[in-house]
Amino acid sequence: MIRITLLIDNSPSENKAIINEHGLSLLIDTGNSRLLFDCGQGHHTLDNARRLGIDLHGLDAIVISHSHYDHASGFRDFAEEGFKARYLYVGKGFFERKYSASCCCYSDLSAGWDEAFASKNGFEIRYVEGKTSILPTIDIYQGFTRTHKEETIPERYVKETPSGFIRDDFSDEIALCIHTDKGLVVIAGCSHPGLMNMLDGIVNESGEKIYALIGGIHLHNAEEDRISKTVRYLKESGIKLIGLCHCSGDRIQKAAENEMRGALIMPTAGDTIIIG
User: Domains in the chain, please, with CATH?
Assistant: First the structure.
């Protein structure tokens, strides 16, 4: 049995003691391994774990999908509180500084910590390129071929390089997959490279079908045509369980709810998804 608990999400819980805020953090327990996927933006991730009676000591690994603050800044709080996991998995290019640009104004969206901070606090950084097996039944995927041209990235997302600012292609972003008897359980952070691109890459590389998709798919500002194509893709893919959260957006949830009744759930901060 797999238990996936949303320690942080945008949407409020029925449990009013749980804090919701813009961000994502999932505690994944496969029965053999416990790991944290994304860390939220700050200390509220830890606060919610305490309110839920969850002990975050003794994790096997931490995986961070990409370095935007709402997924990665909470790692600093995790480390400074003395929590440990031997390995920290990130995509190659994770520590490039990332911004949202408007004319000549740049908002820094980066994690706010670096390799030296992670190492000083006892974490061994493992950079992911392509498919990487990290724990029994758990793989990470990185480097997704962009075949669905409608899955564009907003121009405002840029990253800083020695030669100046360039468009951010989010080539560092990673997704996590858990192998089960029912198929793959795919965990996504924001799906900036495009959800359809990512799922195609995972299926082609693994040769397995996807049973469940949990996480953010960043369609809150997407065009209606892209939303329609994404819903059609998910319906035709045969995925049995879809948990849309964080940055997915109300419009994709409503469209998927109409087309995929019975497959869609909308978990909130503090909720636990159980996959038997």
Answer: 2-275 (3.60.15.10)
